[in-house]
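lol so apparently i was supposed to do this last week
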Amino acid sequence: MPAGDPPLTLRDLAGIKVTQLRGVGQRIAEQLLAVEISTVLDLIQHYPRRYLDRTRQAQIAELLVGDEAWVLGTVRSAKTRKLRGRRTLTNVVIGDGTGKLTLTFFNQHWRERQLKEGLELFVHGKLTLFRGERQMTSPVVDLIGDQPGKIVPVYPQSEKVGLTTSDLAGFIRSALERSRVRGFDDPVPGEVLDRFDFVDREAALYGIHLPESMAEMQEARRRLVFDELFRVQLELVRRKARIERRMSGVAHDMSGELVDRFHARLPFALTDAQRRVNAEIAHDLAVEYPMHRLLQGDVGSGKTVVAVTALLTAVEGGYQGAFMAPTEVLAEQHYLSVSDMLGDLSVPDPTSLLGDRPLRVELLTNSVGAAARRQVLDDLIVGQVDIVIGTHALIQEKVQYQSLGMVVIDEQHRFGVEQRAALRDKGESVGVPDVLVMTATPIPRTAAMTVYGDLDVSVLDEMPPGRSPIITSWAEGPIAESEVWETVRNEVAQGRQAYVVCPLIEESAVIEVHSVEDTYLELQSGELSGLRVGLLHGRVSPAEKEATMAHFRAGTIDVLVATTVIEVGVDVPNATVMVVFDADRFGIAQLHQLRGRVGRGEHQGLCYLLGDPSTNDGEARIEALVASTDGFELAEVDLELRGEGTIMGERQKGRNDLRLASLRRDKEWVSLAREVATGIIAQDPELTDHPELGVEVDLILGDNEAEFLMKS
Ligand code: ADP
Ligand code: MG
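anyway here it is w/ adenosine-5'-diphosphate bound
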């Protein structure tokens, strides 16, 4: 690469195969491929897992028992012996000139081969004394080879293909050195670098791979984390802007008073949060861009009122609204509660004698008879139905609207891109309908910005007054458990009802059914004998399921033993107790959802988590549930415990660019990156004035990845 060529862009680096580096032949290229490195770009984005600070390593002689430290030493000897029961113990003695130390490993006899006499290695562990001998049990071992420098990067390595961290360090060093002549292009605008006092990209790449000090590494990391988050946000904001530009929606007329009349007839005042979110939505509805908004709110925070407010805004201006639920049962529940809320409201109708007519809300599910269905479908086409409630069938071809202007979707996770495309088609005649997606599984705001970056996010973060939070306890051990059943019997005696939830057994649906059935039989003949106990699980036929739910709703079943099929939205205000078996096997969000099934009426809700957690995380989850009833707080704990990997779920692919950045640790950078990206896209929607930035976003996020990010 002759000098005088322009600085290297990431695209240039992606075009250089690793085989072009000195010392990388076919065999090594294959090893590298096994860890998904094929180009120089992959290589320089293979960041160290951690660093060894030679300036801070301890000397063996100085270590006191109980100290935790990094020690640099040389292997003196390694020996494995057999213990009882097929176990092995490997003792490795190392020395550093000041003293000696024994490393012990159980069932890792391969260590004997790995840690040959004379090898230099870094170990981290806690110094203990065993029969007078100084030792570290199962220490972390890093073979750093002969890497120079005060700070030594330790790379994620692959024992399997035989790549060591010093091999990787060598290749990366040689890649960086080869690029030295041309240098690295920095596409991030100077104002942004100034604003955050960032080092330039070249300094960042050197600083992350070959730092002279830990401070330099931190600066490099800060910059690279920003770049990753910035690219993701640029892509999301750009796409969002494209949708907004391309699709013409409905500018709803906000001047009527239907919404006010609706609010006036509610038996309660709206919470401040409901008012705020209503205003956010109203703002979107008034403009011509189609709204695409996510409403996050804990169970019971009053999302339905907000949804109905949005639907009525559309109806008032002469449009129709659709309200979609994830299941038929939930659609029916929504139908009942929405009809009840709306009562005898009327809508303006210039063709009628009185100038208005009753508002018409209809249910459209399979349980509605064929003739009635036909009627609803016909009336939708001519605009005689104002609000229709059902499942996703509502946006299928068969259902035609006169003027669909507003769609509410309860529970976002089952609504994908295909459905969104279908919606676009529905709106052909009048414009793309506005969409409000509701979820009761809150995720932290910064995570939402990335996971649902193409949606605007509203949050109902306040509960209606006068509701006492559900009391949650962890019932550990037989005595506590028998008290739980006593409570269940007491509540039933007072006319209340209870749920008993058995864990989902992912490995086998058959085992799961057996286990629920066993629990059911056991409770019925034991702790709950004499009570009317019902059973519900995934293998029960829809008809039977509906019958059981109807009995429970009617109060002719006292206790419902079920799998998590009851997780979403079942609403029986008379149910006050939730008992969850093996609670440590559920996720935080799931437990919170389950708990939300009780305490929906006037009586105090109680939740008992049974279980004897076998993992620290399991215990931490139960403790979190006991400690907090705030869904957003729990979402933070969840993110803390699980890391972002699982939150992104099937959006995993979208994370490929997040190598250094963590949605958890780098929260504030997510917001800042979003802010900067929004500013740039507002001025330069297609990044034509920032071509290198555009190329980089396309390169790293690609079309497929971006599609994943957009799914919701
Ligand atoms: P979500 O769907 O968010 O779980 P809902 O919309 O079902 O919650 O509301 C839960 C209950 O709270 C309903 O009975 C509803 O009528 C009631 N509710 C909603 N908003 C308020 C409010 N501002 N004040 C009092 N009760 C309210
Ligand atoms: Mg709800």
